[in-house]
Amino acid sequence: MADFLLVHGSCHGAWCWRDLIPELAALGHGARAIDMPSHGEDRTPVADVTLDSCRDAILAASTPETVVVGHSWGGYPISAAAEAAPDAMRGLIYLCAYVPISGLSIAQMRKRAARQPLVGAIRKAPDGLSYTVDPEQAPALFYHDCPAEAVAYAMPRLCPQAIGPQDTPLHLTERYARVPRAYIRTTDDRTVPPEYQAEMSRGFPSDALYEIDSSHSPFFSHPQRLARLLAQTERQF
């Protein structure tokens, strides 16, 4: 059975995998979720968060048998981890996540999309070090198909996202290319456009591409279905 390491996206934390972890356990898999620096229970000051520190948090939690799952922005630090130590994980699964183009930051990647759903919802902190998502718009952007209880659980837990690591370009080499990869596209996503997810994953093997009819948060909207899909995906590694 697989050992899954779950890496959250912007403004979230390990808490967002609440419903998925028991579903993976019910299928016989191990699953662990970590907080990226300055998120959840991690108390790193926003000013001190870097792409490297996010990468290192993943490497500290990974083993050569671990399947690392990155959600949304999490696609960047999991890629950085694979570049730094390709033998430290069994494979990568991108869940409606950004797949880096070498030399670009995630901020630059976002601008390449034909549609920008988050424009108008981002609230930059006065010091310029972080941003939040307008709480009036976040439910429709992140959780439109999720149970009301899950939305009520998530909203007060959303936190500022450090801008520094998202402005940092990531350079990838053949080291990253050695790591097996798969992509799960969310076809009803209102945060990362589904067509842009398809574009970013175009270079993946055809048998490493999967879909789930979900919002940006399938861990809340369809946790059982997502667990089964992850279990199916990891078998190819």
From TrEMBL:
Domain AB hydrolase-1: start-end pairs: 4-228
UniProt entry keywords in alphabetical sequence: Hydrolase
Transmembrane segments annotated in the record for this chain: none
GO molecular function, one term: hydrolase activity
Keyword Hydrolase: yes
Pfam families listed in its UniProt record: Abhydrolase_6
Coiled coil: none
Protein name: Alpha/beta fold hydrolase
Species of the source: Ruegeria sediminis
